[in-house]
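Support request, please re-run this one:
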Amino acid sequence: MRFGVLVFAAAAAGVLAAEGGNANQNSLKPLDSHLFHSLNKISPPIVLPDQTRALYTTSRYDPEKNKSFSFLSLLDTVSGESTQLTPEMEGERISSPMWLNENTAGYVFKGALYQHNLQPNINGTLFYNTTVGISSATYRAATGQLFFLADVYSDGNINSVAGYKEKEKNRTDSAQVFDNLWARHWNKWMTPVKANLFSVKVPLAENGGLGQAAREVNLMQGLAPSVDPLLRWEAEGYAVSNDGQHAAYVVRSPSPDLSWSTNVDIYLVPCNGSGQPELLTEAYKGAASNPVFSADGSALAWLQMETPGYESDIRRIFVRNITTGQTHSVARDWDLSPHFMIWSADSSVLYTLVQSRGDSKVVTVNVLTGARAELTGSGYIASIARLGTDRLLAVYTNTTATHDIYTIDVNSVGAPMRRLTQANREKLHDVYLGEAEDFWFAGARNEQVHGWMVRPHGFNASQKYPLALLIHGGPQQASGHAFSYAQWNPNMYASAGFVTVQINFHGSPGYGQNFTDSIRQQWGGLPYEDLMKGVDHVIATYGFIDAQRLVALGGSFGGYMANWLNANTDRFSALVAHDGEFNLISGYYSTDELWFAEHDIGGVPFTANGRPNYERFNPERLAAKFKTPTLFVHGASDFRLSLEQSLAPWTLLRRRGIPARLVYFENEDHWINHAGNSVRWYSEVLGWISQWTTSPPAPSHG
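Re-run finished. Output below.
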């Protein structure tokens, strides 16, 4: 598959890389659910050391067949041409694209590593396989080492996994016994099986064939034994130096306070397993993340939260000299929180990704002085990779453009980005994708709050339209100027005929850490006030919104807020609460991560000081005031907010004779992960909000 090259003027000119049609919008088709779910999704590119080529994967879902497909592609970063390397693979997505040498690619499929000779549309051949599946793999050609994560039992040995599983199969009972929290996390019950980081020498044979693999080395074997086999060390991420000499991995200390501690550490270890892991983050009890080695391997940088128990603390940049062991913190005067970074070729600068006012920007940070400069403007940079000494290879998106690969000139702030791929040009050329129109208003505390609006398909200024308020989760997350493939894409609601509004209320990142922190003990306070004032603002500002046809939708914290709206206002015709919280007290006792409630709500509900904090903004306390028809959605394996948090308010409304519906997914967790379920999700949600706002568009008098 080959694509041409487009030049895209990003930041300075403020031009958007729109993928939807440019014709009169009345001649464009709406974005329907089947088309939306069939869109191509591309992965972050992996650059060849010669900097002229990159690998990436493309995946898609076929709603008619209810099957998913993926394939590997080669991108020429000079010409912008993409060549499809593998046929479409059905089922599990191709992952971990990598370079085995300059003429051989690698990728993981169904737990095994394959090699590919870069010829178009052929299958790869097996390069490395184990008795257990591998994931998150990378390769260092200089040393012939493969690194990967694999699930193992307490002995940390890949080769003994089959024996343990056979013993489990022959058990005469199914009891699971827990003495410590966690008993379950996210969507799984705790078991002795944990992901460990391994290295193994698998040199590429001279003829490009399969090399002879040595014995796998578990790079986490030197960690202290755990007192509870269910709470063992588990790798949450890792990085390897370019020369293959050192690895740094991210782990959560397996102590009995796991569920109320955010202590996540980074260890440094020799890749050959010859030395003990060295703890780099002992001084801090917050979460560490994103370790990344400098190009020459002499330094390691990572992101560090310093406040214990606060999962949305600001991330500080730390840099460690590998030789001397000296560590220093960079850019401590920065009031924004980077979430990803890579090094420049000369190791003098870190290229970071940071949320800022609804955008995700590339910001350079000098590792000595902390001086910063923004390289990009509006839109959302989803990933970056270094391309030579003066460019970055980035995945960029905005509200009207799906994710594609671009190049960024790092020597020219605000210079045009060059577009290299057009993953969905053919699918979206005649489809309406509305632009995000930003607005600001005086919210809670009379502080400026940011939001944006997308106009409905077939928009006519002389008519009035219903409004859909999309409420983000977190709550310390933010809506962004990005094309979402999940449940909260504003254009899906705009194509259904709604003016779609998103508001980054108090608590959202990207507006300074004080703004993020302000939501503590204010769940039903500042955000609620922001949302009400935001809706007032758009109704007063835009005369085409019908104030009698308003709906609000949200997931997680947004689902909590839908319940809080139900108890505090009757201005909405209908609500949708996806995996939301109804009872803050029972929610505390059944959630997996206690630190979140203890920090955000304040304390614990079983003390005299903590109980009032949970009652203050508890929707269940105001159950008698619920009056709005509501659709509840929940996944059976959601252990962040258990099923009862939707069953309870649904029962409340049904018992009181108020219209309510429960949509239950037995194979989902806090998110909708299966494409077929996502199709049904949109069908139920759009049907529900349309049902309660159906009427011909009223003439506009604004």
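The first strand starts at residue 6 and ends at 8. Residues 587 and 650 are 16 Å apart (CA to CA).
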